[in-house]
Amino acid sequence: MLYNKSMKELSELLDKKEIKSLDIAQELISRTEKIEPEIHSYITFDRENFLEQSKKSDERRASGKSLSKFDGIPVALKDNIAVKDVKLSCGSKILGDFKSPYNATVTEKLAESGFLISGKTNLDEFAMGSTTESSFYGVTKNPHNTEKVPGGSSGGSAAAVSASLVPASLGSDTGGSIRLPASFCGVVGIKPTYGRVSRFGLVAYASSLDQIGTFARSVDDAADLLSVISGYDKKDSTSAEGTIDFSSDKLSGDVKGLRIGLPDEYFNGVSAEISDAVMNAVKELEKKGAVVEKISLKMTEYAVPVYYLIATSEASSNLSRFDGIRYGRRPEGVESLGDLYEKARSEGFGGEVKRRIVLGTYSLSSGYYDAYYLKALKGRTLIINDFKEAYKKCDVIMSPVAATTAFGIGEKMNDPLAMYLSDILTISANLAGVPGISVPVGLDSQRMPIGLQIMGNYFKERDILNAAKAVEGVFGKYEPQI
């Protein structure tokens, strides 16, 4: 069986010429055709293109011209990341059959290393959601229990990896959209420091918060994939220089002397099973030489209102381009420019996207800008300062990823506030711009995965990946029963 092997294992088999890339592709295609109808992780899965890419990879290896050790390894991309001449839907009706005219920078980096793109994965519409239920293309289901949500907004990317349809994938994280589905689906998911990975070619939701990251079934694979897509990009004005020292060969799993901070605020309202699992993991690291101390992130209570004011305001601005002229399907029978805008957006956007656009437009409107948006920016500064003070005392911060494990499909769809609170433990990392990772630490009584969140200082991905590797060494990796 090749479908349940890691990127690293597949790479070794390819190097030894024990298998070909075509063998991997054929087995994953067969498994996808069997499993995918049940979980619906993909929006676009091009079987013929996948096979063609694998044949070209085999030709490169046969001629001694492989592009990297990962040449021939498949990876899936969230469908808000541009791949030239491939459908870019963002999970929305408004984009219809729009195909991107260019590649995202991360897509180019994957191609330069010889990765194969298996397809484009499902997501909450325009990455706005926590469950992958708001996609125009249907609901993605959790491979551990198909009556449960996979988390969101990158639920398709997490589910595809969890169900062993692909060894790794890319997602985007604006307020927890990688870490939450990674936790719910029992895989590893990392959101890097803001600026670590280029956003060029990522369809913007909230530009000051969005960041592309990776999913995998092991910490090593998540680290290796992240190292491939990281680096400065002149096409992205927010892209930052930084040493890329977090590939798997740089990770020892040694946590001796590592200072771990436990914020009291991140354990309030968390289920006992999750809290116990997280604390059990921390105690195991303590046995390995880590130093644990309680800290306070006192601004945490303001994170949700600050986040939803800033994120919706930026969404209001970013989504203004989808007007039926520049982007978006043009409706029939329009009588004026105003009529065109109204029909294009009312017919093309789903309910959650409309809600966030309205909230953001209101926050930015005359007479309310100072009272809401400007005040939220000041609140964000206080949250950033909170983290800066915390990292004077500790190297990493550990907490649960979410207050609960995966809940039922449809359970929170009619309660937006309850849905927004799903991200309460993850959004601060986006507001502050620090890196964060979710790593599995067990299963609850319902046999659903529990994730441990590790947050690090700016551009210290190596710290959190190393700590995550130590955790993985204790608890192992969890596979779905599918």
CATH topology: Amidase signature (AS) enzymes
Give the overall pLDDT as a whole number: 95
Strands of the widest sheet, in order across it, are 1-3-2-4-6-5-10-11-9-7-8
The tally of domains stands at: 1
Number of E-type strands: 11
Characterize the overall form.
Answer: globular
The CATH homologous superfamily: Amidase signature (AS) domain
CATH-scheme architecture: Alpha-Beta Complex
The fraction of residues assigned to DSSP E strands is 5-15%
Radius of gyration: 21 Å
Architecture overview:
The protein is an alpha/beta fold and 482 residues long. It has a single domain, classed as Alpha-Beta Complex (Amidase signature (AS) enzymes). Helix content is 38%, strand content 12%. It has helices at 7-15, 21-39, 47-62, 105-112, 155-162, 179-185, 219-229, 272-287, 303-318, 337-348, 351-364, 369-390, 416-420, 427-432, 461-475; strands at 42-45, 74-78, 116-121, 168-172, 188-191, 212-216, 259-263, 291-295, 396-400, 436-443, 449-456. The chain has an eleven-stranded mixed beta sheet with strand order 1-3-2-4-6-5-10-11-9-7-8, with helices on both faces. Strand 10 (436-443) and strand 11 (449-456) form a beta hairpin. The model has no long low-confidence stretch (mean pLDDT 95).
Give the topology:
Elements: H1 7-15, H2 21-39, E1 42-45, H3 47-62, E2 74-78, H4 105-112, E3 116-121, H5 155-162, E4 168-172, H6 179-185, E5 188-191, E6 212-216, H7 219-229, E7 259-263, H8 272-287, E8 291-295, H9 303-318, H10 337-348, H11 351-364, H12 369-390, E9 396-400, H13 416-420, H14 427-432, E10 436-443, E11 449-456, H15 461-475
Parallel strand pairs: 2-3, 2-4, 7-8, 7-9
Antiparallel strand pairs: 1-3, 4-6, 5-6, 5-10, 9-11, 10-11
